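Q: Give me the 3D complex with 1-O-alpha-D-glucopyranosyl-D-fructose.
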Amino acid sequence: MSPADPNPDLHPGSVARGDWWKSAVVYQVYPRSFADSDGDGVGDLGGILDHLDYLELLGVDVVWLSPVYRSPMADNGYDISDYHDVDPLFGTLEQLDELIAQLHARDMKLVMDLVVNHTSSAHAWFVESRSSTDNPKRDWYWWRSPRPGHEPGSPGAEPTNWGSAFSGPAWTYDSRTGEYYLHVFTPHQPDLNWENPEVRHAIYAMMREWLDRGVDGFRMDVINVISKVVGPIGADGRVTLPDGVVGGERDTRWPGVVDTDVFADTPAFVLNGPRVHEFLQEMHREVFSGRPPGLLRVGETPGCPVEEAVLYTDPSRGELDMVFQFEHVDLDSGPKGKWDLRPMTMLRLKQSFGRWQDGLAEVGWNSLYLGNHDQPRCVSRFGSDAPEHREQSAKALATVLHLHRGTPYIYQGDELGMSNPGFTRLEQLRDVESLNHYATAVARGENPADVIRALAYKSRDNARVPMPWDASPGAGFTAGTPWLDIHPLSSSVNAAAQVDDPDSVFSHYRRLIALRHAEPCVAHGTFRMLLANHEQLYGFERSLDDTRLLVVANLSSAADVVPNLTELVAWSSAEPLIASVPGSSPAPTDPLAAWESRVLRLT
Ligand code: TEU
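A: Here is the predicted complex, encoded as structure tokens.
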């Protein structure tokens, strides 16, 4: 490797080894909110093509593109009606080919979103499946008879008492054939029946087509939901699905909403199910093996404990490269779930991340994220969006995240330090999860103002507000009317204001990404937590051969926090690599200002 080599792990050698992604940084584009090139108020592929210089300047290696397939958009594209085409709202297949080519020309990769736990109810497979009980595709989805003794279609007649992740029952009655179909998400997202080998092989064929088209891997939506707990074959010749206990404890691993007063705890029946590893190994054989190594497979796995993540990501098992676990994004949820708000504490975040670092230290790999299109903005949640702290806390969070062992994911706008926009009215929201929750909670008698407050903190729309490119009224996002209001801070917090400013959040992200590329210890070093019980400071050490890195961050708004000397004294001669306070050259044991972070190297 030459000293000028920007990313040694992206060399042909490591691509051949297949684990180039250990030193890569992934950037998530949520196309609807990224950039609108045709003035209809919705982001599109043309908008992404217009901003590739920006991504190249940032230095990211991979773009993960949230779904652009044909879709009725009941869940903004996570309800796919045609896996083989681009929705006209986003552009054309030719533009997607152009995006693949342009990214490759810039040494970047494209990872597509793969949503195969469910399709849209408008997908041709489901249209066929629902047409009659003896249609050849009937068994491609989960159709079941109403509960005996109940009026079909009435509450309580559902085949099982499972709740959906987006409010209401997980079953919808279809009067045409007198049966219910299962949907863990909205009724517009019927679950595919992975028990049926025809379903699995149709999906694998579709995946092979995308790889043949040139994409570099997949982010697999709720991939640990594909295998359901099934009982013995019932009188109708189909496997039975069991009832759960109503009124029990919520399974805290499930980040979605399940009203356990009315429904059984669904996650127990759908998360990390009995055949999920078998299915993923089959997918590996059918789709990935026999191709050049290095295609990225990242699974989205809500409710995945670290022991299970080891199984998913152990390279010798041939399943996934890494998973998105949800433990840290559930730390501010109470016993009643996502909308039952609890304060997020730094200590619990540190304990959670620390456990995952230890759990995947020997086998497997972490994906590192603080936000995505389903989560509120990380600055507002784990940092501080008070005007005096927003930028510094954005930098501190990024420093801590990017220096962990694992592959960091940047959600669009986090590199600008975007905060939650401060929703105050239901009319400002569009997301199906938020709207359903409001309707159900208010109908249940909750105070509407309290429901709005919870939505303002946790609604998925917080992250879906358009990307601010400049200070113009449409934020450079659109020349038309944006589908979701422009962020109130867009006139000051925007890309144009930050790309050339060496002290900006954007420039800080650039330095972190460049460090990962240049310093093998960031990707490959071991991890050791320091200051484990400190309530303000997050500190850890990375170590590879003769290189040791020290990361210390004050993840609090308290000023002048002094690190514990005994743990850090060995670091007194360390060289500062990245400091979040402009122009500073801190020693490891200097007091840290509010949200100050530093990275030092000892060689
Ligand atoms: O998310 C899965 C998932 O667990 C989310 O539903 C999450 O629980 C919720 O946003 C938090 O309340 C994936 C996609 O990322 C999400 O956008 C989709 O809505 C969902 O699957 C269904 O496809």
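A quick observation: Residues 75, 78, 115, 165, 185, 221-222, 255-256, 300, 302, 338, 373-374, 433, 460 surround 1-O-alpha-D-glucopyranosyl-D-fructose (CB under 6 Å).
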